[in-house]
Specification:
Radius of gyration: 22 Å
Strand order of the largest sheet: 3-4-5-8-9-10-11-12-13-16-17-18-19-20
Largest sheet: 14 strands, antiparallel, barrel
Number of helices: 6
CATH class: Mainly Beta
Helix content: under 10%
Number of strands: 20
Order of helices and strands: HEEHHEEEEEEEEEEEEEHHEEEEEH
Shape: globular
Number of domains: 1
Structural class: mainly beta
Strand content: 35-45%
Distance between the termini: 47 Å
CATH superfamily: monomeric porin ompg
CATH architecture: Beta Barrel
């Protein structure tokens, strides 16, 4: 069992999302990545979207729509769905961090569907030490989880809306506190999502096609704190996801879907500080103070970057994906995810396959970092097993 100190643990948490944060400049531009609490909420939980560059707001609905766009549930073909996903996380660095997810949906009637999910993130086993390396706690097991419920309503023949509620629990210190420092506690928060989905037939040169568009504003909720004495609570990773997809049926056996997602964190950008010895010791020189309420932070996130409009554009993240199906049973997928080098610098290709056999479906995804880059997400695998209970009823 791998033993890790609290210092290594913190480093790994940051490495998994911001692999260039330790640098001051990237190609002459100052780094200014946005950090939030509970970043595990932004992990793509399923192998299908994980194989398509982490895109999913406008793709066809499935059991995992609660993460990408709850409104998609209203158009799901099956009455009951259930997906189980497993991701060995950061395997290039450690061997005992894992991400697990269970998602599903149930159709109430023709227009209404409910969904739910449980995401669990285990940070493995570690030792907590003091500043001189003495082990104070052995084999601690920090973990995080979120419990979600969603409701989707078909608003018209082509449009639907959805909402989701989320409870978040984050136990990063496993109850450990450094002697003489402020006591730590598990962080708890609640959040919600609001989403819309639109689809319409759009044929191309006598071939059947379908255009779809989706919007999801997720993780709007309370801040999270790990100490009763905390001076600064962390924002949740509130996010705006907008995307479109187009599916074209090449013939009765073959179809292909192309999709694009654009993401922006609805969290304040860290400002540039200068000395202010007459007051608090800090003075905002460029940008805006990021110690604000959640509603203010959401609106401020659109204009507060110290570098102005160009830096705001750098905060956009792009996901591009392709999905090919043969006789609706065998799928091949690919994609690309891009984040600006000053905002986290995650850039990687994704590949995957999918198989549907009677009542079961299996999906697999693999992450490939761009050439010449060291990335802790390299070689990340995702596995998803799905069950279609509607087909069981049909066969009976």
């Amino acid at each position: 069992m791998l033993k890790k100190s609290i210092v290594i643990f913190i480093i790994l948490l940051n490495l998994s999302y911001i692999n260039t944060y330790a640098q001051v400049y990237a190609n002459g531009q100052e780094l200014n990545a946005i950090t939030t609490g509970v970043p595990f909420l932004t992990i793509a939980p399923d192998a299908r979207s994980g194989a398509m560059g982490d895109a999913g707001v406008a793709t066809s609905p499935d059991a995992n729509s609660i993460h990408w766009n709850p409104a998609k549930y209203a158009f799901i073909e099956d009455d009951i769905t259930l997906n189980l996903s497993y991701i060995p996380w950061l395997r290039n660095l450690v061997n005992d961090i894992n991400f697990q997810n269970i998602s599903g949906s149930y159709r109430i009637n023709e227009n209404q569907v409910i969904g739910g999910s449980l995401m669990y993130f285990s940070l493995g086993s570690m030792d907590f030490t003091n500043e001189i390396g003495t082990v104070l706690v052995q084999d601690a097991n920090p973990n995080e989880f979120s419990l979600d419920l969603a409701y989707a309503l078909k608003l018209s023949e082509n449009m639907s809306g959805g909402i989701a509620l989320r409870y978040i629990h984050s136990n990063l210190t496993a109850g450990f506190s450094q002697p003489g420092s402020a006591p730590t506690k598990a962080g708890n928060a609640v959040a919600g999502d609001i989403s819309f989905y639109y689809k319409k037939a759009l044929n191309l040169e006598n071939k059947n096609g379908e255009f779809s568009f989706g919007v999801n504003i997720s993780n709007l909720g309370s801040k999270i704190s790990y100490s009763s004495d905390a001076y600064y609570d962390d924002f949740l990773p509130a996010n705006l996801r907008i995307g479109a997809a187009y599916k074209l049926e090449l013939d009765e056996y073959n179809s292909i879907t192309a999709t694009l997602d654009i993401n922006k964190l609805l969290v304040p950008t860290p400002p540039v500080y200068g000395p202010d010895t007459t007051a608090t010791g800090e003075l905002v020189m460029h940008g805006y103070d990021d110690d604000v309420s959640v509603p203010v932070g959401v609106f401020q996130s659109f204009y507060d970057a110290p570098g102005g409009f160009s830096e705001e554009m750098h905060e956009l993240m792009y996901s591009v994906g392709l999905e090919y199906w043969y006789i609706n049973q065998f799928a091949v997928r690919g994609g690309y995810f891009d984040e600006h080098e000053t905002k986290g610098n995650r850039k990687y290709f994704t590949l995957g396959i999918g198989v549907k056999l009677n009542i079961l479906n299996f999906d697999f995804a693999y992450v490939i970092p761009t050439a010449g880059r060291q990335n802790p997400l390299a070689n990340t695998l995702r596995f998803t097993l799905g069950i279609n209970l509607k087909n069981i009823k049909k066969e009976e």
